[in-house]
């Protein structure tokens, strides 16, 4: 069974980075206090460093715009249709062999 990735709000990420800087604790200890992985905290800190102290947050799906989200949806729909067409072609080929 696939484990679902936990998603955190923009406010939580920013608060976690602020907590790390204000606590004076190591990254691992701060992450343990917040019950998050140290790699997540590190990613948020790096994001804040490169964005003037603000953690970049794009929400679920990681699309920077609605247009990109729609494009991804349409690409998936196209892949599904192409897969269905391939299956039908194979079925026709099998039925025509007899």
UniProtKB/TrEMBL annotation:
Regions annotated as coiled coil: 64-98
Keyword vocabulary terms for this entry: Coiled coil
Domain of life: Bacteria
Pfam family, one: HTH_Tnp_1
Claim: Transcription regulation is one of the keywords in the record: no
GO biological process, one term: DNA transposition
Molecular function per GO: DNA binding; transposase activity
PANTHER family named in the record: PROTEIN DISTAL ANTENNA
Protein name: Transposase
Organism per entry: Tissierella creatinophila DSM 6911
